[in-house]
Amino acid sequence: MQSSNHRLRDMEQHHPLLSASGDVETGSLGAGVMVGGPHSGHTVGNRTLWFIQDSCGMVCATMTWFLVLYAEFVVNFVMLLPAKNFWYSLLNGATFNSLAVLALASHMRTMLTDPGAVPKGNATKEYMESLQLKPGEVIYKCPKCCSIKPERAHHCSICKRCIRKMDHHCPWVNNCVGEKNQRFFVLFTMYIALISAHALALSGIHFFTCIKVQWNECSEFSPGVSVLLLIFLCLEAVLFLTFTAVMFGTQIHSICNDETEIERLKNEKPTWERRVRWDGMKAVFGGPPSLLWCNPFTGLRLRRLLLLTHGRRGGSEFSV
Q1: Which residue spans traverse the membrane (predicted)?
Q2: CA 282, 195, 180 angle in degrees (round to 5)?
Q3: Rounded CA gap, 314 and 320, in Å?
Q4: Chain-centre distance of CA 179, in angstroms?
């Protein structure tokens, strides 16, 4: 016979009783609940800028920015600015630099956005009573972060939190990819793949153009330095294009099948109503298909960002 009271089990598996939509939002359990958890940064009131203080992740994130900026340097100063065709330089420069800005913005949004962390330490008697569970119903508690695990949540050992719809932890963005930042991660992989392909194309055009004339006329750098810079750029572009194109494809496949990478690897049987294909894309990117899907600045509130970074109040709030 089932007990007249609800039961609480310490397990690592999720349970379909608590869904992401029905779960308590981060920070709604009272003052002092931190959005970013123990690894967070600057605090303003009850808000905390989400940032994971992981050494490996911070090094990888810094390397990502360095490699993108290196590509910008080679494309602009070695290939485009010395080019004799003004419109060729202008159009390719505007395209490449715009894509690079979008890629870095997507990286920042992925890294600094709460991926869907479950409130830490919410497995209290008071909170359990507020759920108004039916007799015999079972909910699961994560023994590592002492939180009640909603459906499809998994614990991240690096973030030290349970993350809703956790796909994986990516060191290159120094964050988990989860329910709230997956769209920005998809945009990051897409834009990195695009600028990598563009850099490869520009490198090929530049190389064959310089073969026909003197290398000194192609660049302000010496021929040896120019060749080395182009070789490193091509190697970087090939590696980044391969990695991000594959990752972009797997993310789109996961979204269209409404199945995270962890769920696929664990071969978990779906206990939720799947939103497949366009329904899944709309759920992740928000709304019907539009150019806003490609905009990493969507939903960014500048006033809130200033409050989180500088602790200032006042002024108008601007959102995209």
Answers
A1: 56-80, 86-105, 184-207, 227-248
A2: 30
A3: 19
A4: 10
The catalytic site residues sit at 170
Assign 30 to helix, strand or coil.
coil
Q: How far apart are CA 74 and CA 9, in angstroms?
A: 56
b/e map 218-232, b = 16+ CB within 10 Å = bbebeeeebeebbee
User: Which tokens go with 166?
Assistant: 């956790």
Residue 124 lies in a domain: no
Percent of the chain's residues with pLDDT above 90: 41
Rank 92-106, 201-215, 295-309 by mean pLDDT and report only the highest: 92-106
Please report, for the chain, how many H helices and E strands are present, in that order: 8, 9
Expressed as residue numbers, the domain containing 262 is 55-117+168-299
How many domains is the chain partitioned into structurally?
A: 1
> What is the residue whose two structure tokens read 């931190």?
34
Say how far apart CA 37 and CA 155 lie, in whole Å: 13
Phi then psi for 151, rounded to 5 degrees?
A: -60, 135
Contacts of 189 (CB under 8 A, 6+ apart): 244, 245, 247, 248, 251
55-73 vs 223-257: helix crossing angle, rounded to 10: 130
For residue 95, tell me if it sits in a domain. Answer: yes
Q: Is position 122 within any domain? A: no
Question: pTM (2 decimals)?
Answer: 0.79
